[in-house]
Amino acid sequence: MKIHIPTKQEKETKDYVTTSSGVAEEANQEPGNLNNSSQTTKNTKVNINTATGTQLETLPGIGPSTANKIVTYRKENGKFATIEDIKEVSGIGEAKFNKIKDLICVK
Question: For the whole model, what pTM was predicted?
C-alpha cells in the first residue's frame, strides 16, 4: 500500500477528503486509489492574469523565481492581452512557452 501525503501546493489546487482511516485522498478519486492522479487531474487552465505565484508554479518549468517574475511583470505592466504576451517576462522563451501554452489562458 502506498500513502500519498499532499504537499501544500497540492492542497491548494485540489480538493482532499480524509477517510475514516485518517488518510487524505483526492475527493474526486476512487477510495484507496491514491496513485492515479493523472486520471483525476483537473482540466482547468491557469489564468495568467489572476493566478498566484503558487498557482503559476504548477505549470511545467515554472519555479518560484519565474512565478514571481510573472506576478511582478503583471503588476508593473497590467494584464496580459494574449497568452503569447507571457514571453515578454524575463526567463520565458519560446521553449518554455511551448510547454505551458496549452495549460494557460487569459480572461
Answer: 0.60
The CATH topology of domain 46-105 is: DNA polymerase; domain 1 (1.10.150)
Q: Spell out the residues 6+ positions from residue 41 whose beta carbon is closer than 8 angstroms to its own.
A: none
Give the domain ranges of the chain. Answer: 8-40, 46-105
User: pLDDT tens digit string along 55-81?
Assistant: 999 999 999 999 999 999 999 999 999
- Check residue 2 and give left, alpha or beta (phi > 0: left; psi -120 to 50: alpha): beta
DSSP E strands, 1-100 = 16-18, 24-26, 46-47
What is the total residue count of the chain? 107
State the cell numbers at 16: 482532499
Torsion angle, alpha carbons of 38, 41, 47, 51, to 10: -90
